[in-house]
Amino acid sequence: MRPAVKKTAMIAVLLCSALLLAGFSSGPPNGRTGAPGDSNCSVSCHSTFSLNSGPGLLQITAPNTYVEDEVIDISIDLSQTGQMRWGFEATVLDASDLPIGNITVTDGARTQISTDGVSGRQYIKQTSTGTDAGTSDDAPGWAFQWTAPSTLSGPVTIYVAGNAANNNGSNSGDYIYTTSHTIDVGAVVCCTGIRGNVDNDIGDNIDIADLVYFVAFSFSGGPAPVCFEEADIDGSTTLDIGDIVYLVAYSFGGGPAPLGC
Question: What top-level class would CATH report for the domain 22-185?
Answer without folding.
Answer: mainly beta
